[in-house]
Amino acid sequence: MQDAAGHVLIVEDEPRLAAVLGEYLQAAGYTHHWVDDGACAMDAFHAQAPDIVLLDLMLPNRDGIEICRDLRRHATVPVIMVTARAEEIDRLLGLEIGADDYICKPFSPREVVARVHAVLRRHRLVPGDMPAPGLRIDETACCASVDGRPLDLTQVEFRLLRTLAASPGRVYSREQLMDRLYADHRVVTDRTVDSHVKNLRRKLAEVGGEDWVRSVYGVGYRFESNRSI
Hints:
With about 230 residues, this protein is an alpha/beta fold. The protein is built from eight helices and eleven strands. The strands form three sheets. A five-stranded parallel sheet has the order 2-1-3-4-5, sandwiched between helices. α1 packs across α5 (about 110-125) and α6 crosses α8.
């Protein structure tokens, strides 16, 4: 079902638009599956195991906001929300539902393909692209290992490692990390993030991992490998 580029779940109730998106995605090397009913979105997600979800906001039977929140409770799959009204973007951002990107209709199908590619590049970590020697992160299974030794991580610790490792050298503030760690966007303090970092460092050390998570005084944290790969 999946190819080298990735598998896209399109949740869109406009058949013509969905067909055009499917054609452009296919031309770019992606496979795709389409559903037109919000009530079917989660069943399709579990059946298809997509690499990314294109999710319309206004859907019959169940809206995109509710579906996105449900996805965030079950998986870390990237989500691009689609809306027909530009003013909805501000509302979606305010709700902090956990989407990775937002696109407003009407749009160019080429732009959508470019956004899909960009979001997947930020999220996807394959063995050849690992930012540190011995580290492996499995997005599908939500697990990680160092030199074959599994890391016993909580969901929050896994998201923390995945976020930092996806952009080696990038400094994340504590606030930016908080936005990425909690699917329900609960209110937490800087000390909570520091505690998760401390636990992640300890668990990395227990399986022979190095101190890849570095503190940046007064700013936050970054991922940095001590050795060349």
